[in-house]
């Protein structure tokens, strides 16, 4: 097992959000997590996959605007 397990606070810090956001992701089952007794841990890889899945790529084609008369 090489994947680090992060606390909710550490996950929030990596995402640049408050702790409420990762807790909501866990409650809505939108991200993988591990229960260790009463504690919840988020695999670092799960955060990376979440960010990758929700990353929007920029449009690379240039739009040409018609001249308005």
UniProtKB/TrEMBL annotation:
Organism taxonomic ancestry: Bacteria, Bacillati, Actinomycetota, Actinomycetes, Kitasatosporales
Keyword DNA-binding: yes
Keywords, in A-Z order: DNA-binding
An example molecular function term from Gene Ontology annotations: DNA binding
SUPFAM superfamilies on file: Putative DNA-binding domain
Name of protein: Excisionase family DNA-binding protein
InterPro entries referenced in this protein's UniProt entry, alphabetically: DNA-bd_dom_put_sf (IPR009061), HTH_17 (IPR041657), SinI_DNA-bd (IPR010093)
Organism: Streptomyces litmocidini
Domain of life, source organism: Bacteria
Domain Helix-turn-helix: 5-53
């Amino acid at each position: 097992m090489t994947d680090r397990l992060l606390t909710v606070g550490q996950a929030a810090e990596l995402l640049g959000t408050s702790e409420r956001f990762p807790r909501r992701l866990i409650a809505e089952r939108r991200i993988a997590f591990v229960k260790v007794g009463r504690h919840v841990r988020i695999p670092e890889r799960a955060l990376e996959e979440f960010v990758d899945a929700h990353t929007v790529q920029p449009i690379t084609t240039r739009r040409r605007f018609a001249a308005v008369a």
